[in-house]
Specification:
With 550 residues, the chain is an alpha+beta fold. It is built from 16 helices and 21 strands. Helix 7 runs antiparallel to helix 10. The radius of gyration is 24 Å and the shape is globular.
Length: 550
């Protein structure tokens, strides 16, 4: 997902964070970012210290609370906290565990049928009992109502049936080893069959009736209230409820937190604001909570645009990128250099780009460009595109241009081209951009979700590139029969060790073909007032409300 709208894949997202500040023109000028001084909005209200409720500040405004249509971080994060899923993640882990299921699925020998036992004695917020029929209804509605995330299940699920009062059977169209992880996606949750309808376009954006630890008490344009659901089957929240304040900008969120008008601040603060709050946390002013993130950033290289049709040019870009420098100068150390399509959180990760190209390897980059026929007299010229509202990506683009200008002896020239966000995602999929900068927010935590959406191509050829598939949507237009076969193999393989070997082959081929250059994996930051405890993030970047205590 791209948190632009939750996923860059067909969308926008799953996050969102980005920074406007003076760009330090690489190795030449150093600048210190200005701190915003905007006044917190008058609508921000501090929670009385003794009522046990937690006030959370954010800039993420939900478009809808209907899980069948929610595909933005501001929406899915709220749904996540008011709902349960069949499976969920432990904080800090990418391994799933049962939630409304009582065990991991029983998988048929052909890998197509998943039988899932369900928890008894669970009720919805409207007192309707939860059972297999209710779960069947919810999954069918997720697929059948035609909302933004419906493809997640529609692409792989053939049928859903209640084969017992507390037994659900799902048949897949094709083998998909990551399917249990997909069932942990925040929006794949049960909804009360009495409150919702199955049918194309039949959404209810302003209500939520699930089985989770909180009920929706109010939903306004700039605030929401969650009350504790007293009949919740599991462990009750550590607080008495949640007040969510939606701020109009990162600057307002920054200043609202600094003036103690909210207990917790999360999403979206700019890198310079995060650095300032971290420094104050070291002095004891408040708490800074960090976690390893699952959001990654890439440079997509369009093989259908000259000179990127030459693999040596793509490899040269991989060699010249200096990830530690980007992390230091642009992100203020708030990320981890990334050397593979998938983040380091997975045990299949291999640092293939570091091993093959290194960082800031300008001599290698020049050698590769020379081999491709370029020189000072005949430089390789590339346009770098990014969504204009994503200021961190703007700074990355400018830094890459400065690197090329200073270190590549005129053999490589970048032109920086910002464009409005909706236009960017539309035109990137049309193949209009040679180089594009993209962020990726995963739908579910499996290495497949960092591979298939970027490298898979259902229709294409070596001559024309990808005409229909993930790589076309992401703007690289990469096509490889060998890669398609590897992706299919890892999706079919149930043995973890055998699957890991397939992912190793995938990573090696990406490093050789270079349809993308991985850049960084973000860290997640939450800030909390002193006296607030057990602030946690789940591995897909959602703040967990029920553990927060004051």
């Amino acid at each position: 997902m791209a948190w632009f709208s939750l996923s860059v894949r067909r969308w926008s997202p799953m996050t969102k964070f980005l920074s406007l500040f003076c760009l330090c023109l690489l190795l030449v000028v150093s600048c210190s970012p200005r701190q915003q001084t905007n006044t917190p909005p008058s609508s921000s209200v501090n929670t009385p210290a003794g009522d046990g409720r937690i006030t959370i500040g954010t800039t993420e405004k939900p478009r809808t609370l209907d899980p069948a249509d929610a595909y933005e971080m501001g929406s899915v994060g709220l749904i996540y906290n008011m709902s349960d899923r069949l499976y969920t993640y432990e904080p800090g882990s990418t391994e799933i565990k049962p939630q409304l299921a009582t065990a991991l699925p029983k998988i048929s020998q052909d890998g197509l049928t998943y039988t899932i036992p369900l928890r008894h004695s669970v009720v919805f917020h409207d007192d309707t009992p939860f059972n297999a029929k209710a779960m069947m209804f919810s999954l069918q509605r997720f697929m059948g109502n035609g909302g933004k995330p419906s493809f997640l299940l529609k692409d792989v699920v053939d049928s859903v049936k209640a084969t017992g009062e507390y037994e659900l059977t799902v048949k897949l169209k094709k083998q998909f080893a990551a399917f249990p992880s997909l069932l942990a996606f925040g929006g794949v949750c049960p909804l009360s069959p009495k409150a919702y309808e199955l049918g194309a376009g039949k959404f209810k954006p302003n209500i939520f009736i699930g089985t989770g630890p909180y009920k929706l008490a109010s939903f306004g344009p700039d605030s929401l209230k969650f009350d504790v659901f007293e009949k919740y089957w599991g462990e009750k929240p550590a607080n008495k409820g949640i007040n969510l304040q939606i701020l109009s900008s990162p600057a307002n969120l920054f200043n609202t937190f600094r003036t103690n008008a909210v207990d917790v601040a999360y999403l979206s603060l700019q890198p310079d604001q995060i650095r300032s709050l971290e420094e104050a946390a070291k002095r004891g002013d408040w708490q800074a909570i960090t976690a390893q993130g699952s959001v990654v950033s890439y440079m997509a290289l369009n093989r259908n645009q000259k000179p990127l049709d030459k693999v040596e040019v793509r490899q040269a870009l991989a060699a010249m990128v200096d990830r530690p420098l980007l992390n230091q100068r642009v992100l203020f150390g708030q990320a981890e250099p990334l050397y593979s399509m998938m983040p380091t959180t997975f045990n299949v990760y291999q640092s293939v780009f570091k091993d093959k190209y290194g960082d800031g390897n300008f001599d290698k980059a020049k050698q590769l460009l020379t081999a491709a026929g370029f020189s000072k007299a005949n430089p390789a010229k590339l346009q770098v595109w990014y969504p204009s509202s994503y200021f961190t990506l703007a700074s990355v683009a400018q830094t890459l241009k400065a690197l090329a200008d200073q270190k590549m002896d005129g053999i490589l020239q970048f032109e920086i081209s910002p464009v409005e966000g909706a236009t960017f995602f539309r035109d990137n999929a049309k193949g209009l951009y040679p180089v594009s900068l993209i962020d990726w927010y995963p739908d579910f935590l499996d290495a497949d979700n960092y591979v298939q959406p970027f490298l898979d191509c259902q229709k294409g050829s070596a001559a024309k590139g990808c005409e229909d598939g993930g790589s076309q949507i992401q703007g690289s237009f990469y096509y490889s029969e060998a890669m398609n076969k590897l992706i299919t193999q890892q999706r079919q393989e149930q043995n973890p060790e055998a699957r890991q070997k397939i992912f190793a082959q995938i990573q090696q081929q990406v490093a050789a073909d270079v349809p993308y250059v991985p850049l960084w994996q973000k860290k997640d930051y939450v800030f909390a007032r002193n006296g607030i405890s057990t602030v946690q993030l789940n591995p897909t970047q959602f703040l967990i409300y029920k553990t927060i205590k004051k």
